[in-house]
Amino acid sequence: MSKSSRLTAFEILHRISTDGSYSNIALDSALTDIEGDKAFVSALVYGVCERQLTLDYFINKYADKKPKAKVMTVLRLGAYQLLYMDKVPSSAAINESVRLVKEIKQDYYSGLVNAVLRRIDSDSEDISGNLSLYYSVPENLINMWIKQYGDETVRSFLPSVNGRPPVYAVPNSLYVDASELEYELMDEGVECETEGELVKINSGVDIKKLRAYKNGLFHIEDKSSYECACALGAESGEVVLDICSAPGGKSFTIAEKMGDKGFLYAFDLYENRLELVKNGAKRLGLDIVEISVNDASVYNDNMPVADRILCDVPCSGFGIIRRKPEIRYKELDSVKGLPSLQLDILNNSVKYLKSGGTIIYSTCTLNKKENEFVIDSFFKENNNFTLCEMKTVFPDIDGGDGFFYAKLIKNEK
Question: 311, 315, 364, 388: which one is catalytic?
Answer without folding.
Answer: 364
